[in-house]
Amino acid sequence: MNLSTGNRAQAPTIKRFTVEEYHRLGELGFLTEGDRIELIRGELVYMAAKGTAHEACNRKLIRELPKLIGDRATLQDQSPVVMPTDGAPEPDFTIVKNRADDYLEAHPTPEDVILLIEISDSSLTYDQETKLSLYAENNIQDYWIFNLLENVLETYSEPYQKLQGEFGYRLKRVLLPNEAIALPHFPDLILDLSKTFPTKITH
């Protein structure tokens, strides 16, 4: 059976998903947590495999961030943040405003986010470009990248739109593992970076 219309070839198209369709795929069992997929601008993207350095940094932050934040905000680990631009990325950590229902009714949105954190080794370029642009476009005010390839913390703030239409951050700051930094909106909550970066034990 010929499904073509005349002699004109039809170019293939990409199916883009809304956040609602993406969550529906999970409800129907097409996507599971083990698939490690996130929605970025309507496209399903496989997340990079996590190396041992990534997981070591993740464990250290799991140890340090809850002690630091206490009950002044809510910490979520690898959980969705719903973006208006058909995105539901799952950052390594997100600090969001406290809410009475603990976000039972709906996932956090950019208005709820205090700080978004990615841990980057093999995913560094993706986090510095694709995800950075996505977060800036959706008005995420503060974005941190634990850059494990260079062993530095990159902090980004003041999202803006460039004249060419792309999105980025006006301010970038780089901190070393022997330094410390205050959490956004909480100047008295100081994170000691020496307790966050993975370190090799020499015998």
Write the layout of secondary structure elements.
Blueprint: H1 19-27, E1 37-40, E2 43-46, H2 52-69, E3 74-77, E4 93-96, E5 113-120, H3 124-137, E6 142-147, E7 152-161, E8 167-175, E9 180-183, E10 186-192
Care to describe what's here?
This protein has 203 residues and is of the alpha+beta class. Helices cover 20% and strands 30% of the residues. It is built from 3 helices and 10 strands. The protein has helices at 19-27, 52-69, 124-137; strands at 37-40, 43-46, 74-77, 93-96, 113-120, 142-147, 152-161, 167-175, 180-183, 186-192. A 6-stranded mixed sheet has the order 3-4-5-6-7-8. Strands 1-2 form a two-stranded antiparallel ribbon. Strand 9 (180-183) and strand 10 form a beta hairpin. It is globular.
Quick take:
With 203 residues, the chain is α+β, with helices and mostly antiparallel strands. The chain has 3 helices and 10 strands; from the N terminus they run αββαβββαβββββ.
Instruction: Give the fraction of residues assigned to helices.
Output: 10-25%
Low-confidence stretches: 1-5
Mean pLDDT across residues: 85
How are the strands of the largest sheet arranged? 3-4-5-6-7-8
The separation of the N and C termini measures 71 Å
For the biggest sheet, the summary is: 6 strands, mixed
Count the E strands. Answer: 10
User: Total number of helical segments?
Assistant: 3
By secondary-structure content and strand pairing, the structural class works out as alpha+beta
Report the β-strand fraction as a percent range: 25-35%
Instruction: Characterize the overall form.
Output: globular
Provide the succession of SSEs.
HEEHEEEHEEEEE
What gyration radius follows from the Cα positions, in whole Å?
Answer: 19 Å
